[in-house]
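User: I'm putting together notes for a lab meeting next week and I want to include a structural view of one of the chains we've been expressing. I don't have a solved structure, so I'd like a prediction I can at least talk through. The sequence is below, exactly as it appears in our construct file.
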Amino acid sequence: MTAFRSVALALLVAVAAVALAAGGGVAQAPTVKIGYIPSDSFAVLLILADRYLTPAGINVQMVRLPSGAEITSQVATGQLQLGGTGLGAAGFNAVASKLPVEFIAPLHYGYLEDYFTVRKASWGSQVKRVADLKGRPVALNTRGAAVEWMLDQVLRRDGLTIKDVQVRIMPFPDMVPALESGAVEAGIITEPFPTLAEEKGVGVRPLPRPAGARAIPITATLWNVEWARANADLAHKVMVGYLRAARDLAANGGKGWSEDRNIDIIVKYTSARREVVKKARPHVIDPDLEMDPSLLDSMQKLSAELGYLKYKDMLSVEQLFNFAHRDRAVKELGRARPS
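Assistant: Thanks for the context. Below is the predicted structure for the 339-residue chain, given as structure tokens.
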């Protein structure tokens, strides 16, 4: 009897080994690596990961990076599957160069007046108007991205351009102490850091938002095309989750940005104080991920003027974005707004 059991056990072990060799073992959870900057402007990606991918059994690895240009580079090389980036030269060049990346949806919109932050100790004295920033140090987190275009737009309101100031590159979190120390006089800063600067009494947002102002597209999400093609079902799940995350923020006329369950996730990834995130000026995202592409030409033209672009003819929105994945997700979930 003992001999029989030994033979049976040996057979079971042999069968199990064959099954594992043939791929019959327990399936490994798919992994998705997402690049992000620790800012609530990346909230759609943060909520996507925590609320919709991880509970679905997808192994998510969140990779924190200082700029969208680095995220774009790592998406192009396949180190990341997807990530967010400011609309700008890095992404435009990647698409124009036929690298395996494509923009798939907007990530957030915002207002120039919510980002332009001036050192409080200087405003009203050394700096009484935007034109007084001429020759002074101003902070950006990267060159060739939407933030540079935004700064240029603000400066043009008072007769300057981006070439008239000294640009200092630093991560968004470092801009608050830079304002405090006087290392910079102003910056294009994303939430929650302008609110933090105001809380600490070192920064002020001096420009009133014009009546009827429309939020402009600032960041977008892109993914690796080769990964998306090789993992079509997984990519679709990511897109559906992304749309759900956007709708969580756009709920109740955009009040989702201040909902506790969403703030919990933002705080987790930004390390910002909860009360600061709660007070931050909300960003904007369309519940159907629609976007106004009219500013893309202006952004490309500035990048060309500054020598960043590696192509001559401006790319159309159809060349820059592949909305097919978004449209399929919207069709599956139904439109949030009547078309």
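A couple of points you could mention at the meeting. Confidence is low (pLDDT under 50) at residues 4-24. The CA atoms of residues 249 and 256 lie 4 Å apart.

User: Perfect, that's what I needed.
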